[in-house]
Amino acid sequence: xxxxxxxxxxxxxxxxxxxxxxxxxxxxxxxxxxxxxxxxxxxxxxxxxxxxxxxxxxxxxxxxxxxxxxxxxxxxxxxxxxxxxxxxxxxxxxxxxxxxxxxxxxxxxxxxxxxxxxxxxxxxxxxxxxxxxxxxxxxxxxxxxxxxxxxxxxxxxxxxxxxxxxxxxxxxxxxxxxxxxxxxxxxxxxxxxxxxxxxxxxxxxxxxxxxxxxxxxxxxxxxxxxxxxxxxxxxxxxxxxxxxxxxxxxxxxxxxxxxxxxxxxxxxxxxxxxxxxxxxxxxxxxxxxxxxxxxxxxxxxxxxxxxxxxxxxxxxxxxxxxxxxx
Length: 326
Ligand SMILES: NC(=O)C1=CN([C@@H]2O[C@H](COP(=O)(O)OP(=O)(O)OC[C@H]3O[C@@H](n4cnc5c(N)ncnc54)[C@H](O)[C@@H]3O)[C@@H](O)[C@H]2O)C=CC1
Ligand SMILES: O=C(O)C(=O)CO
Description:
Layout: E1 2-5, H1 11-19, E2 23-26, H2 35-43, E3 47-50, H3 57-62, E4 68-71, H4 81-86, E5 91-92, H5 99-114, H6 117-125, E6 146-150, H7 154-167, E7 170-174, H8 180-186, E8 189-190, H9 193-199, E9 202-205, H10 219-224, E10 230-233, H11 242-250, E11 256-259, E12 279-281, H12 290-309, H13 320-325
Parallel strand pairs: 1-2, 1-3, 3-4, 4-5, 6-7, 6-9, 7-8, 9-10, 10-11, 11-12
């Protein structure tokens, strides 16, 4: 049995695959593969372990022989899951193991933005430290402020816990369904989307990218927020409208923004958001710790192994593949 892997993954996942007797073929080049290269490699394989590669209907139809597709991510917005399901291809992902690291990234962006840390670091490099000015470089405090969570799932909950523990922040949230455990544990309060926008001092985004969440944070949304609010997005860049975010910051509709995800990625180096004191941007590193990436590679490998054995894969995005088969 053979698996094609679209990037070099951590040793832990590779080892598991090798121990299971699975032959590995990896894409080692430092460029993304083309659709033709992806199809050619998959036609020689029984499974695909995909690191962020877009998997559209054309690809899936060309490679309908694949016994399993294991994603090296929890997000699956880059995959045509409906087509995969109709072709009976199970899709696996890596939930849970990356929640803490991604929440840490959201927390880092919140704190860095509140104190203009990235901008001030750059100003030292430019020789602009100057003299100690009691009225300059002022940030805002987070203690006792209100954290609004859009999407109180695994990562959102972890972020809420950190903010409550570190700064005693009050937690409000908007989710499709109520999270009663979080309401009890964190005294979190469910609000409508509009109320969330109006009441948050820091608004942090943790939903998947779906047709319902795409472009959700637009000019109208930013207009409802407090002029002192900080917007954080570590979910997907397409959930906010980047031009509207820039306009809202320039117009003082909100105070600051911290982004681990942009639209498009990578963000162009001359983007005006990168010049703003109250904006912090990271290059999609939410889950990028040694420990978390190793754990993700292990879950992805477990999905490949189960799929190749014909067993139900443990971390499954499209359970319908098994219900429709039986
Ligand atoms: N920056 C990074 O490196 C990373 C980004 N992510 C992103 O974070 C997302 C969330 O991950 P998890 O917390 O593990 O997922 P999750 O499924 O545990 O949580 C998402 C929550 O959003 C809610 N939700 C979905 N659509 C909604 C809507 N329209 N309105 C209100 N609530 C809605 C769901 O009910 C769920 O509670 C992923 O889908 C991925 O896109 C995940 C890991 C790393
Ligand atoms: O898992 C995801 O969805 C990511 O964005 C990267 O870990």
